[in-house]
Amino acid sequence: MGFPAHTDGAALRSLMQKIDKGEQTGIRDQIVVDLYRKAHELCADTVTYKDRKKLMETYKLDRILTSRVWGFPIMLAMLGVVFWLTIAGANVPSSMLAGFFGRIEGYLTAAFQALHAPDWLHGILVLGLYRGTSWVVSVMLPPMAIFFPIFALLENFGYLPRVAFNMDRLFKNPAATASRH
Amino acid sequence: MSTYRVALIGNPNTGKSTLFNALTGLRQHTGNWAGKTVVRAEGEYEYNGHTYNVIDLPGTYSLFSNSVDEEVARDYIVLDRPDVTVIVLDATAMERNMNLALQVLEMTSRAVVCLNLIDEAGKLGIEIREQLLAEKLGVPVVKISARNKQGITELLRQIENVAKRRIVPKPVQVKYSEEIERRIQELEPEVRRLIGDDYPARWIALRLLDGDDSIIAALERRLGANASQTKEMIADGLSCAH
Ligand SMILES: Nc1nc2c(ncn2[C@@H]2O[C@H](COP(=O)(O)OP(=O)(O)O)[C@@H](O)[C@H]2O)c(=O)[nH]1
Ligand SMILES: [Mg+2]
User: How far is the CA of B24 from the centre of ligand 2 (A)?
Assistant: First the structure.
């Protein structure tokens, strides 16, 4: 597709093999230096910083949040707080919901009795379906209602990308991390 | 009506996936790159009656094939040659991001530079003169906020311009040291003779000088596939004749 008739990968390889290996050493470093120089030059001409102080503050905060030493402890502490808030905070609304559903179950049972509904129907609908659903809702809903907004907040503050950055460093090979800056 | 292929490339966390979602909405599906454990997200959108097939390439800091992610991104740009490559930059970290943009512009001229997180940059007091930057880079530059869906229309317009070749960008090329430039000049015509005009000869010459085996291996794999395809076509031709 689109290759000229004389296209030949093997010829490329032999072309590379003809290049003096001795001359290759250090060329990557030079390439990277030249790239950075050009990038710097372009940005110097087109990007202006009106509020250097604010910028320095965010950089400083960034450095702490993603530092090799503090990145992970801060992350674990944040996660700990989030989980604690979720679990502790969910207890109260959970039991309130459970109580609420329990009261309704009482009414439902009374209604079934008033209608002389058979026991098996009451068993399936009230003791099975209703109780199961209300249990799931009272256990699941409050933690979700707390957990997701907190995460949305962290996301809004831009903390999650910093977590991603920390995790990247954990999972990428050390050689790649050594060369970034 | 035609279909164009658009690739999104950029550093990690520059909002590529957010932009991808903003562009394609629900018309997307994910899988893996053939034989690699790298996620491949593909989707499409319609604009002015044409279909645009979008690929969200893995985020990379450079394209020197240090990792599978970098190789996937590089191979897609160089070998699969999308109609438009959208280079997504984090407007709050221009210098670090520009580095990747320059590398991509060595590999393809059919590019649009997209300055994302422009809302954050504004809050931080960062001002970017995108018109001047576009002149200096030689490709269209669009400011957007993918999350707030700002500037998307202008981006779509510029993607269309490049896809339909109403704009044929002439991207700036990094000038290397005299020594490297001299050797590129020696090598480039030879490379061009071997692989034709469809591929970035200058960039491949640079990779040869750099001793980068993997791009040659990738080229060989493609050429191999190409050769067997040709063989099949010849075989088909023969069986038809009988
Ligand atoms: N403020 C702001 N945040 C954004 C914007 N675009 C993306 N983000 C956020 O940047 C982070 C990284 O985005 P993502 O799309 O995952 O980046 P990717 O790694 O390049 O795919 C997420 O937290 C996004 O919500 C934007 O235009 N403005
Ligand atoms: Mg992504």
Answer: 14
